[in-house]
Each structure stands twice: as structure tokens, then as C-alpha cells.
Amino acid sequence: MSSDSVAERVFDAVAASAPEVRASLPGRRAYLDDENPSGESMLAADAHADDLLADRLTGVDGVGAYASEEREAVVEADESGGVSVACDPLDGSSNLKSNNPMGTIVGVYDGDLPASGRDLLGAAYVLYGPVTTMVCARDGAARDYLVADGEREDLGDLSLPEEPTVYGFGGRVPDWPDAFASYVEELEEDELKLRYGGAMVADVSQVLTYGGVFGYPALESAPEGKLRLQFEANPVGYLVEAAGGRSSDGEGSVLDREAASLHERTPVHVGNAALVDRLEAALA
Ligand code: P6P
């Protein structure tokens, strides 16, 4: 069975689940008592999306394991062996209260987790915006889709625009290291516009649509940044690189970053190659 067919089947299962995830949001805006493995509060919507996707994705032929930001350990599927799917079931769920966009991120890894980004066979995100869209990538190519009634409608190849226009970075400005803050000042002088909405998928969609750079950098108070390597940085880095851009943990592609534990965090920056190159030069 070709790994591509498994990756495509995972993408189809995520698309098929999208209407149910979206429909589940209105009634699940309350916080649960428990926290996720990263110590963050969990919404009822996080738990529901995670349970739904775990059930669907462990049922995909060729998937041997499922892991998510919301679960301490990897869930073994019935079938032994096969690919591992790493999922952020509801990325940016804190946007639910303010009714701003959120997403679902998946990475399809060839092997056990935690894995290197170079082990990715494919990656995708769903964006729950005014309409539901999806970006999928495998074999070095990214494609854009509309998701209607759980089906992917192909909108064609996705490539980063040549000319960047937007940027968005997480963390508080006073908590940015000086070298990073200076880099951002230069972007402003280059007339890039600030676009930051608190959900990685939505902010990366701005970058893929208009060109630019998104990141959650290393902070003085948190040198590892905030975003998770397995569930956010690797899959999104893979997508943006497939769309002709670059990813970086500040030194090199996030896909090359050593994975020591399932829930580890990493600084991550993605976007037009020239802007990411300049970032690495600024931090060197
Ligand atoms: P902050 C959402 O919680 C998330 O993991 C990403 O989707 C998003 O980019 C980031 O954290 C937002 O973090 O500190 O701005 O709330």
C-alpha cells in the first residue's frame, strides 16, 4: 500500500470530520477542569474534536497510531504498524469565545512518534473561517481545497506569492529577544502589514494567501517558544515548504529539529524564503 494513498485517506477523513467539528463548536464553548499535556486549559470543543478525530483517524486503513496535543500518550490503532498521525484537533481554540477562526492540523509521519519532520509523508490543515478550507501537502507539493459537506473540492496548486505583504508574531513584544525585535522593526520599515489573530492556521493562511511571514519566536521568558513541534511546527513547516517557502526554528528548517519528546515546544517561523533567511541572519 503506497504511503501516498494512506496520506490522502487521512486527508479525506479529516475533511469528512470537518462539518461535525464545526457543528460541535456552538455548544462547547465552556472550559473543562482538566488541562492538556502542555498545561493549557481545555475547552469542551477541544476534547470533542480530539475524540472525533481519534476515532476517525485510527479507523483509516494504514494508520497505526494517533497522537494529539490534547492527550498525554499515543493511541495505538487496531491495525499494527502503519503511519502515525499527529493532530492538533482544534488549533487556536481560545478564539472560540471571541468567535474568531480556528483550525485542525495533522501530520502523517512514517514511523513512531515523536518523529523528525523529515519523516512526514504529508501534512494538512483545515481552516474554520467564513468558509471551511483545507490545505494538503505531500511529495513536495501543496494544494488548496474548499471543504463542502465533508468533501474536498480541489482549488489547485498552492504557492506562496512572490511579494510578501503581511507578518504576524506571537508573544509579548517586551518578551522578544532584542535581535528578533530588530528584525521585526525592519519588516515594518519594509512596509509589511501586521496580521495576527491568535490561531496559527488562520495566521499561516494569511501568509500563504498574501505572502509574508508568521512565527511564534523564542521568548526571553520561554526560549523554546510556545508551539508544539510534532503537532504544529512540523506539519505547518512541511506545508509552507511544499508551497515554496521556508520554515525555521531560528537556526534551520524545523523539519530538521531533533524530536526528544512528544509534547516538546519549539520556536517556529514560516513564510517567504527571503524573509526567513533574513530572520536566521538576524538571530545568528
Ligand atoms: P497566543 C493557539 O493556542 C496556539 O497554539 C496557536 O494556534 C497560536 O498561533 C498561538 O497558540 C497563539 O498564542 O500567546 O497569541 O495566545
TrEMBL record:
It is found in: Cytoplasm. Signal peptide: none annotated. Keywords: Carbohydrate metabolism, Cytoplasm, Hydrolase, Magnesium, Metal-binding. Pfam families: FBPase (PF00316), FBPase_C (PF18913). It is an enzyme of class 3 (hydrolase). Mg(2+) 2 binds at D88, D91, E232. This is Fructose-1,6-bisphosphatase class 1. The gene is fbp.
